[in-house]
Structure formats: C-alpha cells, structure tokens
Amino acid sequence: MSSNYGNSILFANYNQDATSLLVGSHIGFSIYSLENMKKLKRSYENKHMKDVIIVERYYSSSLVTVVSRQSPRKLCIYHIQENSEIFPTNFTNSILAVKMNKKHLIVCIEEHIFVHNVKDAQVTHVIRDTPPNTNGVIDLTSSGDSLIAYPGSVKTGEVHIFDATNLTALGVTITAHSNPLAALKFSYDGKYLATASVRGTVIRVFGIPSGERLFEFQRGSWGAAINSLAFSMDGQYLASSSNTETVHVFKLDKSSEDQPQLRQNVDDSASSWMGYFSKAASEYLPTQMSEILQRGTSFAFAKLPTVGQKNVVALPVIDGKLRLIVTTSDGYLYCYSIERLGGECELTEQHRVGPGYDQKSHRGEICGGNEVLGVTTGRHNEANERHCVDNEDAMGDRPPMSHSAE
Q1: Per the record, which residues fall in region Disordered (predicted)?
Q2: What are the DSSP calls for 320-389, one per residue?
Q3: pLDDT at site 402
Q4: 246 and 254 Cβ atoms separated by less than 8 Å
Q5: Closest C-alpha among 132, 206, 219 to residue 173
Q6: Measured between alpha carbons, how far is 377 from 207 in angstroms, rounded to an integer?
Q7: For 107-127, what is the mean pLDDT?
C-alpha cells in the first residue's frame, strides 16, 4: 500500500511471514510486532528518514529497505540495530516496488526490474524494456525457487514469470484476465499465484510453474479497485481487500478443483433436476457463462468500519489461530477472527498505527457498523549505482547478508 495520504500513512506492508507490520509516513518509518494483538508493540521507530514511501523488512532481521519521497530513485538498506544506512543504490527512475527473499532483492522501476543477490548486493540481471508498470505491480516468491511475477502487457492481464536463480524466463505466459493487472501475489511456498485485474470482480489462482488455472473466485458483481491480495502461510486461504468496505477470504479447497467431475457424476446419474440443469448449461450456454456458474465465492468476509481508504491485508496465525489483519491508510489496524465454518469475521482488536501515536495510545475502541509515484522513463545507468558488500554486519536474529543463501 503506497500513496499520498495527507497527514497519515504513506506506506504500509507486512514482512514475508506477516509477523511484522511496516509503516512509512512523513516523519519516518515504524515496525510493529504482530505476535500479540491484545497489546500492539512498536518494536522500532526511525524519525531521521522523512517521507518514507517504501519500507520492506528482510523477514524478522535487522535489515529493512527504505525509499523516501525526497529521493525516490535512491534505495537504502537500513540496519535498525545500529541505526545506520548501508548499501545506498541510485537508479535513473523512481523506485516503485522492492521485494526480498533469502536469495534475492528485487527493485522495480517503470520499465526495468533489477535482480540483486542478497549475499553480496550485486546486480545479477536486469529485465529490460518491460511493459510500463507505473503502479509497481510485481511479486517475488518468499521461499523455494526465486520466481518473479510481473505484468506482460498494459492492455490485458498477462503475467510473465522470471526465474531469478537461473536467470531465465519460466517459459510460461499466464493469460490471467482480459483487463490489465491490478495485483499479483505468490503463496509463501511459491506453488500458487493469485491475480486480480483493474476491474476487480474476479480473483484467479494459478499453479506454478505450470501456469494452470486452479481456482476462480467471484469477489463481487460490481467493479472495485483491488488494494491487496494475501495468502495464509499454509496456502489454504486467500484474502482480498479493495476500496469497498468488504474484505473477502477465499478457501482454496482441493475439492473445488474436482467440482467439474463431481458435476459430471451427478449428471450421469440423472437423479436430480440440478444435474439435468448443469448438463443443459454445459451444452448450450456460452463458455464464459459456464465459467461464471463454476466460480467460487467467499468462505469468510469482514466489514471495515470505513470505506474508501487504501489498505493492505494479511492472514497470519496468532496464538495458534488464523487471523485477518487489515491496515488502512488513515492509520488503523484491524484484527478479525475467522471462524472454522467461515461467514462474517468478528472484529476483535483495533489499534492506531503510524505517526502521532505512542505506545500507550495504540489501542483504540472497536467501532461498530458499518502514490503511486509518477515516474519518467529511462534506462538504468550503472555508473550511478553503488554496491556495497556487508562483510562485518552482526544481524543478531539472522545470518549476515554475506552469509550463504539457504
């Protein structure tokens, strides 16, 4: 979630396993621990870097990547234990997105994607002349193979996959939607890729690396601006948030993949009028209508207290239970419980986050009821880029970046 939000949050996102919330604002950036929703803990705050529009954390380590509006072409890797800035790297265009896993750091500008090695911070490859990606729609697998997903067209929802380890295209092009892409998200293990278009009515899930469409969910009948997609760590649930008041949680039930076969079995029995109807529909209705009839719907949903705020969603496990977390651009974090049988999620905790809220004032009362940066095109100038190797950094809770990647 990145934009201009007046006096509130400029950016919010979660680390790879959704154990931390990162917030960028006009006065700096903050990190919150999500291990205890009863008392939200701000574990770190930096007020030296102003107007932070991107902040991403390397898992639960001391390293974060930071981009400020004052220097939108400069990527800083910041060591939060030492309060020191390392690895400053300059690009010729504004940085739109940064992604990290244990092998690679990915930087997205409008028409290029830079692949860095984590262990030595060197650029190993540049994906050049990509279709203009003004919103920085991109994702990187958090574990397993280092795969990058990015838009392959500005006119349709085509997805390209790049293998950052072997430095080659995956060899499959996913035609996900007829409209341009609004969001991409890999599951934690990299076996699924969720997509949404600018229309925002349908969420699709594809198998990786095959590119086969496995699931299709109906988010709504009316269009919406999709703000974020998020898988649970086990890949069984997928959340979608938008500019509407409803946050959807879909269940990736294996039985849904077998639904056409189940329907065929019912048809063959000819023992019910529904079986007869399904058979007639498959024979006479257009393919698009048949697909609509087979779309899944929400397993669970949550209602946000406010409408129209940009937001970012996560599905962490807290105290052994799956939770739905939503952070909004007006500085609220909402925590919902997800019942075993689905349905409407209960709002259990609400906190204020971002600038102006100290440790004692984070928690709020539960309410009832109901940038993207503009960039200019241009090629990367490697002479403007400075790469540093971290040979002596003591990370505390993780190996140093010079340590061999897992």
Answers
A1: 382-406
A2: TEEEEEEEETTTEEEEEE--TT-EEPEEEEEEE-STT--GGG-B-PPPP---PPP-------GGG-----
A3: 29
A4: no
A5: 206
A6: 33
A7: 94
Q: Which amino acid is at 200?
A: G
Beta-carbon count within 10 A of 248 CB: 23
Token output for 75:
């990527």
Around Cβ 192, how many Cβ atoms within 10 Å?
Answer: 19
| pTM confidence score | 0.80
Of 364, 365, 245, 366, whose CA–CA distance to 304 is shortest?
245
Report yes or no: 313 and 237 within 8 Å, Cβ to Cβ.
no
Question: What mean pLDDT is reported for the chain?
Answer: 82
CA distance 114 to 237: 30
CA distance 253 to 192: 13
Q: Can you tell me the mean pLDDT for 391-400? A: 32
Burial of 4 (0-12, 13-18, 19+ CB in 10 A): middle
Q: What angle do CA 244, 246, 249 make, to 5 degrees?
A: 130
Q: For position 184, what pLDDT does the model report? A: 98
Residue 135 φ then ψ, to 5°: -100, 0
Q: What is the pLDDT of residues 274-308, one digit of tens each?
A: 444 444 444 454 545 445 445 788 999 999 999 98
- Give one DSSP letter per residue of 137-205, joined into a string: --EE-SSSS-EEEEES-SSSEEEEEEETTTTEEEEEEEEEESS-EEEEEE-TTSSEEEEEESS-SEEEE
In this structure, the chain runs to a length of 406
